């Protein structure tokens, strides 16, 4: 398995470092690093890359990290190179080219089957954005999965920015078969009060295996009483900002209900959430770490203006979904699952993710200069 290859590379490099230097590797990009007492994902990312965005490190070590807020000393992490490739590994472009060549050699069926109609949103780089190669990481993973794992299905991709319309009209009415990039709650967990949104997602839609795991951070001004909250319980009473159309089931399952234990603000953009915290309109902004890092750069803020709570995060998986009224929905999701599973085995999943992050970061840096 590809993730096992990552682990073997990390252990091998660590053994060499220990023999030659007698100490843990430095926190440098394109190396393997042994976690020390007091390290956090953010401090490692800052030392290695000059940014607190640790999502790329999390991607590269997903099987090793169960809780981003509790790194065990002695854990060996593969720190990706600047181009996203792994230490001592092939580049993303090499892996992608090899897999595309292999797929092109597979004999396709001559039986006509209608294209699967895929839909996603736009302007959510690096995940779904028309300006990025293949429409962003999630879009590339979806379209590639339909050509892997024994699949050979044609498809069409549309970008509809109104995410709520995917749930309310586009999928239920059959305008599209699969919508890409949705956070789905644990629908087996009825220990908390479900909101309307959670009820709809759990009762009307089917979902794929996890496509991409995101870390959701909680951000405050440094002097906030919530900056060092050690549990979700300590966030009760806060005004929390998360954008309209985003999931809130992670808050609900921690007992943070709008109008009861918290006040929830839901503007359109991440920038509005950060502005709300800076001006005191909100106490906490919460969304995924990649978007936080990008928005900080766009706003010209530095790491002392807003800080991530070091104890409170949530993990969520982006998935593909289909409406249960679609007679082929489960079949299409099964095809996507097969393709995704093969891509994880071959390394193509990580290659596509890292290649898209590289492209996105290059564009972001060019725009900020």
From TrEMBL:
Signal peptide segment: 1-26
Domain of life: Bacteria
Keyword terms, alphabetized: Signal
Keyword Signal among UniProt keywords: yes
Every LysM domain range: 31-79
InterPro entries linked: LysM (IPR018392), LysM_dom_sf (IPR036779)
Residue ranges of coiled coil: none
Xref: Pfam families: LysM
Name of the protein: Transporter substrate-binding domain-containing protein
